[in-house]
Amino acid sequence: MTPADLARYDREHVWHAFTQMQDYEPLLIERGAGSWLVDVDGKRYLDGSASMWCNVHGHRHPRLDAALAAQAAKVAHTTNLGLSNPTTVEFARRLVEIAPRGLEKVFFSGDGSSAIETALKMAFQFWRQAEPAEEHRTRFIAIGEAYHGDTLGAIGVGGVDRFTAMFAPLTFQALRLPSPGGPCPASGRPAPSLDESLAALDRLLVAHAGTVAALIMEPLVQAAAGIYVHPAGFLSGVRDLTRRHGVLLILDEVATGFGRTGTMFACEHEQVVPDFLCLAKGLTAGYLPMAATLTTEQVWNAFLGSHAERRTFFHGHTYGGNPLAAAVGIASLDVFRDEGVLQSLSPKIARLRQHVDRLARLDHVGAVRQCGLMAGLDLVADRAAGTAYPWEEKRGTRACLAARRHGALLRQLGDVVVIMPPLSISLDEIDLLAAATEAGIRAATEA
């Protein structure tokens, strides 16, 4: 088929996620190499969103390609329901080795939402089967403006209204703690301070004592909220309070895991060990869908018993533990180890920070936020007054579309322009990405 044929069939048949199809203009990516993607017309683009935040080592990394081919020569898929596969077992062991100490059990699923659903259901069932059982623990606490996925359970703990409000009648509602990483979207009030946030959480735990199963949060930075960065000490303070009140802690590292914040997992920055660690996106370096929920021996033991006791975790996914994905995941961990990926991040993070600080001086850029190789830039109508653009003007979308014309693919969150490239990006490529971002912002805000 010609590029024109493909574009036509794309418009006619493919329903794209988070996309208003009436306005959709096709862009068909045919191949990639390193930090670059190439469309069907041969135009090159820097992958400034890491292909939705999951590409870690760049496209077509030879070691990952080889691992995928080698596993395909053995077997592509075997069920993980009552069976196993050597590659999947090895990957589970490798994840346990790099995870915070004490997370020794690995449940595989298919994507980030699935990893969250797994943790929520495990936490709920744990309390019903604990010794002694605490069946009143059915509530969850989540952070304001949180995003944990699009399935119904994940929506229940989500807090980005534009994504979740439509489906609220279908699911539960979490207890909500205001985010210390961004302003209140309803009132525009500044984010609460660290002390105010932890005091509010303590009050919430006291008010709902004995009824909360778990608290769920993204550590350090709330990605889909708009790159909301938490103050230092918030994560460790939350861990202290959940322990004090006997509440489980679920950390969603779907976006923040695998080097994105500068360490393998974001929770390492404050030496926090959760009860559940949810992983996806970078788990397979952006090659194949896979997710994992890691948990503790204590949680695992609550599910052990005879068949008649029905303590089994009745939950699973057809492709959970897929050997192809596991093979690439193992190869990705080898690349982290052998190519010094984490050690190479400091100068890249610093270079991105220089550009973010410079872009913050543009007339229509308001607040900017960065954590590791994650950055968000707010587009505003009036910086001095802090006045937002009318949402109908789609300034963030317009900025990202304009950046395409300058050779970069970015992803907006409303009127927040997000920069989140592969970890393998070079310093020169960061410069090019920042230049395209600036050109896109100017085109969208100076007209």
Helices, strands, pairings?
Layout: H1 3-13, E1 29-33, E2 36-39, E3 44-47, H2 50-53, H3 62-72, H4 86-98, E4 103-109, H5 112-129, E5 139-143, H6 152-156, H7 161-164, E6 175-177, H8 194-207, E7 212-217, E8 221-222, E9 228-229, H9 234-244, E10 248-252, E11 276-279, E12 291-296, H10 297-301, H11 323-338, H12 345-359, E13 365-371, E14 374-382, E15 387-388, H13 395-405, E16 408-409, E17 411-413, E18 416-419, H14 427-445
Parallel strand pairs: 3-16, 5-6, 5-7, 7-10, 10-11
Antiparallel strand pairs: 1-2, 2-3, 4-12, 8-9, 11-12, 13-14, 14-15, 14-18, 17-18
Protein traits:
447 residues; alpha/beta; Aspartate Aminotransferase, domain 2; seven-stranded mixed beta sheet; five-stranded antiparallel beta sheet; globular
What does this structure look like?
The structure is a single chain. The protein has 447 residues and is an alpha/beta fold. The chain folds into 2 domains: 3-56 and 344-445, Aspartate Aminotransferase, domain 1, CATH 3.90.1150.10; 66-338, Aspartate Aminotransferase, domain 2 (3-Layer(aba) Sandwich). 35% of the residues lie in helices and 18% in strands. It has 14 helices and 18 strands. It has helices at 3-13, 50-53, 62-72, 86-98, 112-129, 152-156, 161-164, 194-207, 234-244, 297-301, 323-338, 345-359, 395-405, 427-445, and strands at residues 29-33, 36-39, 44-47, 103-109, 139-143, 175-177, 212-217, 221-222, 228-229, 248-252, 276-279, 291-296, 365-371, 374-382, 387-388, 408-409, 411-413, 416-419. The protein has a 7-stranded mixed β-sheet with strand order 4-12-11-10-7-5-6, sandwiched between helices. Strands 13, 14, 15, 17 and 18 form a 5-stranded antiparallel β-sheet that branches. The chain has a 4-stranded mixed β-sheet with strand order 1-2-3-16. A hairpin with a 2-residue loop joins strand 1 (29-33) and strand 2. It is globular. The model has no long low-confidence stretch (mean pLDDT 96).
